[in-house]
Amino acid sequence: MTAGNSVRVVAAGDHFVLPSLIARAVEHEVGRADVRELRLGWPLEPFGPVAEVQEASDAEDEMIEALAGAQVLVTQMGPVTERVLAACPDLKLVVVCRGGPVNVNLDAAKRRDVRVCFAPGRNAAATAEFTVGMMLAALRRIPQAHDPLVRQGSWEGATYYTYERSGLELEDLPVGLVGYGAVGSRVARVLCAFGARVMVYDPYVHGEIHGLRVTSLDELLRRSQVITLHARLTPETRGLIGARELGLLPSGAVVVNVARGPLLDEGALCDALESGQVSAAALDTYEREPLPAQSRLLGLGDRVVLTPHLGGASRAVAEKAARIAAEEVGRWVRGEPLAHCLT
Ligand SMILES: NC(=O)C1=CN([C@@H]2O[C@H](COP(=O)(O)OP(=O)(O)OC[C@H]3O[C@@H](n4cnc5c(N)ncnc54)[C@H](O)[C@@H]3O)[C@@H](O)[C@H]2O)C=CC1
Ligand SMILES: O=C(O)C(=O)COP(=O)(O)O
Question: How many Cα atoms sit within 13 Å of 122 on the Cβ side?
Fold first, then answer.
């Protein structure tokens, strides 16, 4: 941008990222910023890709109107489609406050020389902590004990927690991590603190990592009493864990998925839960979201702990996202190399 001018920024928060937080972070970072806060007033599928945004939608119209004259857009889910980019020739930088700029048409942005950045890792701590919570919930049957036993004035804990039902502790337990990125590496750190025997499979991570055992997927599956998935969903990882893979686990293993539903063949998981090959599953993400009412998972009683895709949602995430995005805007304003730019 031209030195001396004030940069015009639209801070478009929605769902989870607050426009006021973005605006404050950008003003703090840049100083000479004219920030317009925009609370997007339309519901979008929470983590849906841009393909799910209807062309010529109200959302696009709202974006186009708000972006008039702006050079920078900071957004979480606002659709930055071909039409929006064509209608906003002043726009030079788009920063998406999430793990990937899935709501931006990257090809269209490249053609117009618009830089597109994102905010990796903003929810890694939240997701890692939630994962360990889900693991403990499944291993120790915490949700099952909560309501029926105490809230209803009953004290059947002694009979509920028989030897067979009392569950496993993490200390000394072999736990396999599939994926060792921002979330997986944090989960590993916490599990090590519990004394779990942590193994890792990640084809893009080589050599010894932090003293952890790195294995092939099959070896990890054969040895793990618990597996937890932390790969990104790509064509390569879709269906990574199916019937064959679940069959390699020791009988009665536990499966945790706080990553993406389609990493796991849900039908095969239900079969494995029904047969006892898998004794429990803790899931935050599903093949289809929201989970359909006829999902087999809902018929599996207390063998499953199910949460509605909220592993990455903590209060701190909105602030971290705003800060990471604002730092990127600051680099752009100062003409420095951008940290997480895809165009
Ligand atoms: N439930 C929730 O609310 C949230 C879910 N997530 C999901 O958690 C997962 C992990 O996120 P991050 O750690 O931020 O991603 P990341 O990109 O930092 O790490 C992903 C890791 O997966 C590895 N990987 C790639 N192909 C693989 C394969 N074939 N097998 C095993 N590993 C493979 C990569 O090398 C990388 O180390 C993603 O699926 C993400 O979408 C992230 C945040 C919140
Ligand atoms: O990954 C999730 O599930 C989230 O909570 C947010 O996703 P994102 O990293 O913003 O694409």
Answer: 27
Q: What is the pLDDT of residues 27-80, one digit of tens each?
A: 999 987 889 888 775 544 444 444 444 555 677 888 899 999 999 999 987 889
| pLDDT on residue 55 | 52
Kindly list the protein residues whose Cβ atom lies closer than 6 A to any atom of ligand 2. 47, 98-100, 123, 312
Probe target for ligand 1 pocket from 205, 224, 230, with the most ligand atoms within 8 Å of CB: 230
Name every protein residue with a CB atom under 6 angstroms from any ligand 1 atom.
Answer: 99, 123-124, 127, 178-184, 201-205, 230-233, 236-237, 240, 258-260, 284-285, 309, 311-312
Averaged pLDDT, 291-304: 96
pLDDT at 50: 40
* Mean pLDDT (whole number) for 246-250: 98
Domains, the chain, ordered by start: 7-118+314-334 (3.40.50.720), 123-306 (3.40.50.720)
**In the block, residue with structure tokens 């879709």:** 238
pTM listed for this prediction: 0.88
Which amino acid residue places its CA nearest to atom 4 of ligand 2? 312
User: Which atom of ligand 2 lies closest to the CA of 120?
Assistant: 9
Helical pair 182-194 and 124-140, crossing angle rounded to 10 deg? 50
Give residue 52's pLDDT.
46
Mutate to test the pocket of ligand 1, among 47, 177, 183, 314 (most ligand atoms within 8 A of CB): 183
pLDDT digits (tens, 9 = 90+) for 256-292: 999 999 999 999 999 999 999 999 999 999 999 889 9
CA gap 48, 35 in Å, rounded: 26
Structure tokens at 302: 């207390």
Output the residue whose Cα is nearest ligand 1's atom 44: 312
pLDDT attached to residue 47? 44
Q: In what order do the strands lie in the sheet with 7-13?
A: 33-39, 7-13, 72-75, 93-96, 115-118
In what helix (H) or strand (E) does residue 315 lie, and over which residues does it extend? helix 315-334
Rounded Cα–Cα distance for residues 272 and 295 (Å): 15
State which ligand 2 atom lies nearest to the alpha carbon of 127: 5
